[in-house]
Amino acid sequence: MTTAQHLVHAYETGLGLEPSALDDEPAPGARLAATLPVWALAAGSVAAAAGSANRYRAALGLATRPTRLDPARIAAAFASERLFRQGESAPSAFAELSGFFRSADGWVRTHANYPHHRARLLRTLDLPADTDRTRLAATVATRKGAEIEDVAAVVGAIAVRVRTEAEWSASPMGRAAAAGPLVAVDSRTDRPPTESTRPGAAAPTIDRPLADVRVLDLTRVLAGPVATRTLALLGADVLRVDPPHLPEIDWQFSDTCQGKRSTLLDLRSDLATFEDLLAAADVLVTGYRPGALAAAGVRAAARPGLIEASVSAWGTTGPWGGRRGFDSIVQAASGIALLEGDADSPGALPAQALDHGSGYLLAAGVMDALRARAEDGAGRDVRVSLARTGSWLRAADRHPDHPAPLPPDPAATNRHGDIVTAAPAFADYDDYRWPAPPYGSAQPFWIEAPDHFHRD
């Protein structure tokens, strides 16, 4: 099956609607119960990644393994922020100024988890730096949602008007977001001069079929890091690159950077170092808005045969193609928030499922692109967007009378020191190769046998 077919199969076979095989176990989708079929998205996207890994194994002449879906593990991975602990403390998934606020004509949803996004939100509303949630709410209540949304887009803040799905579907940005495949894999004509095995590269195995693949990870938050964490689980050497001038959220990094290496590099002042990394990479994964890397001077085409993968909020076309966004923001703008709540109280999916699902779908697309490149040598572009994943979810059957979702299973976790994280969604893997490393702890170059440097 193709990546999209795996997802459709998960929906059509009713995953999550069947009774449990054991009386003392919840039904498969009980931990992700919602009006929309979140379990089908979760199980289908994980199955898609597992299927792509098997196709890649087969192309290498390795044995494949049956796809086993463990509902507790998948639900835990999708709701990982609810299981994460550091020193027994649970994180707050959203900052004080992130969330739903009543506007003069409806609701607005904001995202201000990062300091620079908070600062831009306050600029949008002409509020001082010490503004608290109460003052923000009072100000939003005096403004129309469309006004806040438009000004936020101009200053780079993240705030959207909460729409009905009919409004979203009829809008130019809604139509653009729903167009095209769930996972776009487009072939390019560029090919490296010669294709040879990298000296010193680890040999692929059934457990680590991507052992000789190098991945540059320029992503943050969830969808991109989930994709690259999946590639790392399957053996890839993933080097995450972060700008030193933008802070990262500590717990979020620890929750999504397992099995990777982490380095800091300012592309504005040291583009040459990044180009050296890129020249020896197999895959570049980005979460920047379309065109942002090119504007910074990055020329991905300078690496012939590169698999260039990207995740965006709204897709690459349409009037919102260049806007910022996150899972919660896409849910609010596209009608999902009202489907999972009501006009008096917008709601949300039981997990950031657009992020996680898009992440596994992107990983699946990357592996399919690597397999195709092995056959013809050509580079490929792989794209997913949260809004496109959301449009698939909204087009599926609904269950408005669903029970409340059960909490994620605390047994589906791993502990390393004082940090507890969700176990991998893939039933064949008990844990990632190593916990998230210290932020920025690696040098910006490739190394041989990275496993040797990451032993517990």
Topology:
Layout: H1 3-12, H2 38-59, H3 71-78, E1 85-86, E2 99-103, E3 106-110, H4 115-124, H5 133-140, H6 145-155, E4 159-161, H7 165-170, H8 172-178, E5 184-187, E6 214-218, H9 223-233, E7 237-242, H10 250-256, E8 261-264, H11 271-279, E9 283-286, H12 292-295, E10 307-312, H13 327-333, H14 336-339, H15 353-376, E11 380-385, H16 386-395, E12 413-416, E13 419-422
Parallel strand pairs: 6-7, 6-9, 7-8, 9-10, 10-11
Antiparallel strand pairs: 1-13, 2-3, 3-4, 5-11, 12-13
Helix pairs in contact: 1-2, 2-3, 2-15, 4-6, 9-15, 15-16
Give a brief description.
The protein has 456 residues and is an alpha/beta fold. Helices cover 35% and strands 13% of the residues.
Structure characterization notes:
The protein has a seven-stranded mixed sheet. A three-stranded antiparallel sheet has the order 1-13-12. Strands 2-3-4 form a three-stranded antiparallel sheet. The two termini are 38 Å apart. The model is unreliable at 10-23 (pLDDT under 50). The protein has 456 residues and is of the alpha/beta class. Helices cover 35% and strands 13% of the residues. It has helices at 3-12, 38-59, 71-78, 115-124, 133-140, 145-155, 165-170, 172-178, 223-233, 250-256, 271-279, 292-295, 327-333, 336-339, 353-376, 386-395; strands at 85-86, 99-103, 106-110, 159-161, 184-187, 214-218, 237-242, 261-264, 283-286, 307-312, 380-385, 413-416, 419-422. Helix 1 (3-12) crosses helix 2 (38-59) and helix 4 packs across helix 6 (145-155).
